[in-house]
Amino acid sequence: MSLPAYRAADPARTYYAFNGAWAFLSALTFTLSMVYYVKEVGLSPLQMVLVGTTLEVACFLFEVPTGIVADLYSRRLSIIIGFGLIGAGFLLQGLVPTFLAVLAAQVLWGIGYTFTSGADQAWITDEIGEDQVSRVFVREQQLNLSCTIVGTVTAGTLGLVSLPLPMTLSGAGMVLLALALLVFMREENFHPTPKAERENFRQMVDTFKHGLAVARQRPVVRTLVLMSLISGLSSEAFDRLWSVKILTDFSFPELFGTSDPAVWFTVLALAGTFLSLGASLVVNKVSPERVNALHPKGLLALFGALQVAGIVGFALAGHLWLALAAMWLNQVAGTIAYPVESAWLNRNVESRSRATVISMVAQSNAIGQVVGGPPLGALAGRTSLRTALVVSGLILTPIPLLYLRLRPARTVVPVETV
């Protein structure tokens, strides 16, 4: 059972705080992680793929079990455990520059991420109510982008001193964040199953069955699970290959007296984050009623189409700045769509199995990445990066159509399982 907070803080502020910290600390780790893998650890392209596969397998295996823990015992406890494990993974990766240590780090932080995935959204939805959560998700996304900018600049600065330094400090920060949440994070509107009634494994199975029934019987949830799978089939290849295309197909001009890829990748990350933040603010200012709509299928279909155009455009671009513009289009569309889709999903799931269902959506994405990544990587080797990236974009074409097919439900009817 979760220990109570020593000094309970406002839930919305707590949610903003730990998500902002997560955005800052993850930017410290990931901004130069690819450069670290190559220059410090000396990973081969095959080993780079294995690192990604190890992470996705860990997420796939633990996503639903950790979601059940959050629904059965405590969302707060699940989040605290998650950040602690993520911090341990980041620390291991930064302190021990070997292939096996990097693989072990992926397992640690992958499991940690599954403890937080779904649990954080389920926690804040319970604490403040479904009617308020959409605005909180949108504001949290904007705050995250701001913190990502600060984290990216900090990572680039620290990386000039030592490539492992940013991720080592990030790992220590994650552990401190877990300890801070232990002190300040409250959980008042979640009611765990009484100890005498849990029957442990049987209760976990019942929670999983209820979550599965929700995913199967509610069109919005069922469709979002399917779209998460499709997105995963596409994203693993794009996430691994876009940097290879940039490095092999184009030459960087001098910036601040250098054309070092580490400097340029920091700048590219910053530019993408600034663009995403600006676009999010503009969309929320110009059309807040669509962002906060109860059934935002048209808006999400538009962003889905823009992501397809961005990936295919990036694949076909023969000029550096055209490729970057297409890449940023894909990033901006995905960034704005995410909180809108998250709020939509949370409104269609009951508290009883909310974290489990959200974890199922995330797990379907992990399945897609594990299944889709290796074939597209092989396709790139047999044909070209351009071909693999075009196919990666075309895989996403059903998503806008799936959004448009959805019809609003009048009420969320409780789902019973047998």
TrEMBL record:
Pfam families listed in its UniProt record: MFS_1
Membrane topology: Multi-pass membrane protein
Domain Major facilitator superfamily (MFS) profile: 1-410
InterPro entries: MFS, MFS_DHA3_Transporter, MFS_dom, MFS_trans_sf
TM regions (residue ranges): 20-38, 50-73, 79-105, 167-185, 224-242, 262-286, 298-322, 385-404
Primary subcellular site in the record, as a coarse category: membrane
Presence of keyword Transmembrane: yes
SUPFAM superfamilies associated with the record: MFS general substrate transporter
Locations listed in the record: Cell membrane
Record keywords: Membrane, Transmembrane, Transmembrane helix
Protein name as annotated: Tetracycline efflux MFS transporter TetA(P)
Organism: Kribbella alba
Name of the gene: tetA(P)
